[in-house]
Design brief:
Number of strands: 9
Low-confidence stretches: none
Largest sheet: 7 strands, mixed
Radius of gyration: 16 Å
Oligomer: single chain
Length: 204
Amino acid sequence: MEQSKFHWEKIYSSKQSSEMSWTQDMPQISLDFVHAAHPDKKAKIIDIGGGDSKLVDFLIDEKFEDITVLDISEEALKRAQKRLGIKSEKVTWVVSDITEFEPAAVYDIWHDRAAFHFLTTASQIRKYLSIARKAVKTGGTVIIGVFSEKGPKKCSGLDVMQYSEETLSGKLQNGFEKINCITQDHKTPFNTIQHFLFCSFRRI
């Protein structure tokens, strides 16, 4: 974990959001998938690898009351907290490698945009899915956004995995059933295109 943590702390300490390919001002697809789960305002929602993503801003503005943001980088979470100001007090912030996360709650919605594809070994993926099975309630929703088969093979200097609807669904077949998948052409802050796959799954 330490090498990975060092890498991400360095990224968030040395770059502005506008210099990071995954930055988006309006996380519309993530919000659409959250809304599709029809959560009430007391639903427990966790954003995995949320960093300084603005998804949390929109969830707060929509009056969701139980939001957790997890990231391996403390610096990333500090940036989000600074941006939110007093609103940050409405959020539970967790600094952890997702493969070492020990959930203290059971969640209604697990959202992950662009964390899962950084797991490149079978061991890492097994740990992630084992934690997700424990952390998401039966009937709860898992939303995962990853690079598609047309997506980059590296991101932020690290190798990543590419997924099709079939290969991603195959990874989650133990404990989850697919609800919906779509693709997205994400326009980066420097006007390049990254191809994403977003899928939602129901915990069974």
